[in-house]
Specification:
Elements: H1 15-43, E1 45-48, E2 58-60, H2 61-64, H3 70-82, H4 87-103, E3 115-120, H5 122-131, H6 142-153, E4 159-162, H7 175-184, E5 195-198, E6 219-222, E7 231-232, E8 234-235, E9 240-241, H8 243-252, E10 273-274, H9 300-311, E11 338-341, H10 350-357, E12 361-366, E13 374-375, E14 383-384, H11 385-399, E15 415-417, E16 420-421, H12 422-446, H13 458-496, H14 505-543
Parallel strand pairs: 3-11, 3-12, 4-5, 4-12, 5-6
Antiparallel strand pairs: 1-2, 7-10, 8-9, 13-14, 15-16
Helix pairs in contact: 3-12, 4-9, 6-7, 8-11, 12-13, 12-14
Length: 546
């Protein structure tokens, strides 16, 4: 029977309708075949460790492609995105501390002696009181800072930063004296010395927050906002350079306006942030100083080995030296730059002041019992905040501000696509590589088996079992070492080649460790059960009559 288009057959079903189930069936069969082919492709062995003494581990394409590790990777990214309990921030801070204490490259000291920190403490107030009783009171009066600037400016430094917030007028002596020093310093110097004061939060319509009039283009307010994870180079909210940026611009462009017209980085990104690299040693020219320096191992390998031994609570051949307060043995305890006592400035000889003040960057800070102003640092014990600005300036002088290919270490960098930055992409790549290595490690561990030859005696079984247990322990240690070596290698590559802040070593370690800890008992239980079954089978077969 011929069916005309639009008509139906005797059963009342059009040919198009009758054809649809067959098409769906063909599509289903095709998708199943493609799935089987894909599964065969990814489960196909890449290489087999035939030399492995206890079993024959087979590594498949799914392991190398990351499919085996995909659930762990997605879960880690989800946790990092949601960031419960600020885990991402905390592990990143711990990673920075570990990296800069243990595996950082030796930071060059080419600019260290170009920066001098003048620190004022309670003892210095007593020293000022000997010169004039009115200067020995708390809080330090304006006359104290005027006295210090009178000494400092006579030696024509490159730039001066006072890490003190003169934000509200106090009933203290020396206000007019300090205002006169700030107003007249450029009139009796051949080249005006840039002077910067710590600014506060600007209110709407407010031009400045300090109480003094700052004359000339070489003076200004700077931002001192502290963040333990990075050093902000520009304060977009208040329209100000950071202290290190202002000092850097004031020193390299002496005599030119140093205002907040733009950030001190070449790509004009006001949101750029810097990861400060700290030196392994303190200032060698500060004499006894205020803090005593600690000798640290020069070898990077010794520092890494000592770090892991220290985490295990071991002290081996002095690699992991113990500390009295239980802190990290690799935190330096002395300041990285020459530190002069504020109360001794007017007592020092001219040759000492000339050596440490003339043509130097000068930063004035304080640390009092009632206001210690200590900040947490990744590679040093807590120091007064002025040293944080001094080390940021040191980084800019050593690495450059981004112009001409010379770059400081960036806490983050330009966006690659959407919300993904170069630092985030590096962390994701490191996570994938580490999870792939974890998959290979766990698959190798699962393939570790122990068998007994027929008729083996009790002594032979005991020796063979002992050797197998030792081998399993060594295999676990070797696998974890390879995973950590990969993370350290990626961190060093990102730091030294890409100039990016350290990857989140501890966050990635937590993800891989959690997966290993969950998998390990199951793997060891399976191995133990197989050992017992193989032993019973061998013993049973050896007793069968010939």
């Amino acid at each position: 029977m011929t069916v005309v288009q639009g008509e139906t057959s005797d059963s009342g079903i059009s040919p198009e309708t009758a054809e649809r189930p067959a098409q769906r069936a063909r599509l289903l069969r095709g998708s199943l075949r493609a799935r089987r082919r894909l599964k065969r492709a990814f489960t196909r062995p890449v290489f087999t460790l035939r030399w492995y003494p206890y079993g024959t581990p087979v590594i498949r394409w799914a392991d190398l492609a990351g499919l085996t590790a995909l659930p762990a990777i997605l879960l880690t990214l989800l946790v990092a995105l949601l960031d419960p309990f600020d885990l991402t921030e905390k592990t990143q801070l711990e990673s920075d501390a570990f990296f800069y204490q243990i595996i950082r490259p030796d930071y060059p000291d080419t600019q260290r002696d170009n920066i001098t920190v003048i620190l004022m403490t309670d003892d210095d107030l007593a020293a000022f009181a000997e010169e004039s009783p009115e200067m020995g009171i708390w809080p330090p009066p304006y006359s104290v800072y005027a006295r210090m600037l009178e000494v400092i400016l006579d030696f024509q430094p490159k730039a001066v930063f006072i890490d003190v917030g003169f934000l509200t007028r106090r009933n203290a002596p020396g206000y007019d004296r300090l205002q006169t020093v700030l107003a007249d310093y450029d009139s009796y110097h051949d080249t005006p010395v840039p002077i910067f004061l710590s600014g506060g939060e600007k209110a709407e319509g407010q031009d400045k927050t300090v109480i003094f009039d700052l004359p000339g283009p070489s003076a200004g307010e700077v931002s001192v906002t502290y963040n333990p994870a990075y050093y902000p180079l520009y304060d977009s909210r208040n329209g100000r350079l950071s202290a290190a940026c202002a000092l850097f611009r004031g020193g390299v462009a002496a005599g030119q306006p140093v205002s907040a017209a733009g950030p001190c980085i070449a790509n004009d990104d006001p949101n750029q942030r810097m990861s400060i690299v700290w030196p392994p040693r303190g200032g060698s020219t500060q004499g006894a100083g205020i803090f005593a320096c600690r000798d640290l191992p020069d070898s990077r390998a010794l520092r890494i080995a000592g770090a892991f031994l220290g985490m295990a609570g071991l002290d081996f051949a002095g690699i992991a030296p113990r500390t009295e307060n239980g802190g990290s043995p690799y935190r330096q305890i002395c300041p990285p730059h020459v530190t002069l006592a504020a109360g001794d400035l007017h007592k020092q000889g001219g040759d000492v002041l000339e050596r440490h003040l003339e043509d130097k960057y000068i930063l004035i800070g304080s640390s009092f019992a009632m206001a210690d102003d200590l900040v947490a640092l990744p590679a040093h014990r807590p120091l007064p905040g002025v040293f944080w600005h001094a080390m940021a300036l040191d980084n800019l002088l050593v690495y450059g501000d981004g112009d001409g290919g010379s770059r400081y270490v960036r806490h983050d960098s330009g966006t690659l696509f959407g919300p993904v930055t170069s630092s985030l992409a590096t962390n994701i790549v490191a996570l994938i590589i580490v999870q792939i290595l974890t998959s290979i490690f766990l698959r190798t561990l699962d393939a570790t088996r122990l068998s007994f030859p027929a008729g083996a005696g009790a002594w032979r079984i005991l020796v063979r079992t002992g050797g197998w247990l030792i081998f399993v322990v060594l295999a676990i240690l070797a696998g974890l070492t390879a995973i950590w070596a990969a993370k350290i290698g990626i961190a060093l590559f990102a730091f030294e080649q890409l100039k990016l802040a350290p990857i989140n070593l501890w966050g990635i370690f937590t993800a891989s460790a959690a997966r290993t800890i969950i998998h390990l008992p199951k793997s060891l239980a399976a191995m133990g059960g197989l050992v017992l079954l193989r032993y019973l089978a061998r013993r049973g077969s050896s007793r069968l009559p010939a």
